[in-house]
Fold this sequence. Notes:
- It is a single chain.
- Strands 5-4-3-6-7-10 form a 6-stranded mixed sheet, with helices on both faces. Strands 1-2-11 form a 3-stranded antiparallel sheet. Strands 8-9 form a two-stranded antiparallel ribbon.
- It has helices spanning about 15-30, 40-55, 55-70, 105-120, 145-155, 165-175, 240-250, 280-290, 300-315, 325-345, and strands spanning about 1-5, 75-80, 85-95, 125-135, 135-145, 225-230, 255-260, 265-270, 270-275, 295, 315-320.
- By secondary structure, it is an alpha/beta fold.
- The protein starts with a strand and ends with a helix.
- It folds into 2 domains: about 1-80 and about 320-345, no CATH class; about 85-300, 3-Layer(aba) Sandwich (Rossmann fold), CATH 3.40.50.410.
- It is about 40% helix and about 20% strand.
- Mean pLDDT is about 80; it is low at about 185-210.
Amino acid sequence: MSFLWPQALWLLLAAPALVALYIFLLRRKKKNALRYASLGLVREALGPRQRFRRHVPPLLFLLAMIALIAAIARPSATITLPSEQRTIILAVDVSLSMRANDVEPSRIEAARAAAKEFVREQPSDVRIGIVSFAGSASVVQKPTRDHDELIAAIDRLQLQLHTAIGSGIIMSLATLFPDEGLELAIADFGVAPLRDGTRAKSLDRPRDEKKEFKPVPPGSNRSAAIILLTDGRRTIGPDPLEAAQMAADRGVKVYAVGFGKAGGGTATVDGMPIYMRFDEETLKAIAALTEAEYFQASSAAELKKVYETLNARYVLEKKETEISALASALGALLVVAAAALSLWWTHRIV
């Protein structure tokens, strides 16, 4: 816990002064009290319970004062709250390098397993969409809360040529903002038609007229996020950093996950050894531009941990919250309790 106005805590020095004043008044009252023939008889009549409870109302008043002084100091605490993020797009690299078997049984199978586990762990009120990208990008599954549909969509991922990371980000944004008319600026290298029979738009195709758009601060969109998984580097399509800037202008965080060894490595694809290395520098820049985080996973187990970490980001979030109202309410409750007990036991307010 921290305090926005810590200077007000100096008022707590009044607490021991009030305790000393209370003891002084008790002693003075004792001296001025009538003398009885037998003080022991009076004490026996009062009993230990009655002697103790006479101090309870003043104690509650003291605790109330401390709570109210704490409220004046404006306390704040880190509280775990349900996340406000409600739509997540999983953008998965389906380039041919994902067929590599340096991760058992293969990179794509490990990615599928981790993505399925991520989907299963999401609460029912979170919508998830799936975008795949290689030479172009396509929506494999529109955002939905149906986990069975999402898992079936993950099983439908098909490997293709090339790696268009920027296309994956833009298609994810187009899925999050279907009314903005976002276009996918990629070249059509003979990629198979999308599931609805259409093809991705090419760079030489005319662009639709854009609607008026006002950028927002990066990372400010609390209702949407993109998780980008890739094991390679851009070989075609829009610049990933320009695509990331589009996401940043819409306040959408892009969590970038580099799958494979950060320094590169050799894997076997179709019986041929090839050297592969993902663009860690670009992925870090994408995450930084969008106020998100970058993760690196070199095995199926590490990838699963990354998704578990990301899952915690969406299900729960920690937020610094001022709790002055709570402290004030506690102080008021203690005052009422002290007054009520005093009236009940002594028929007067202390």
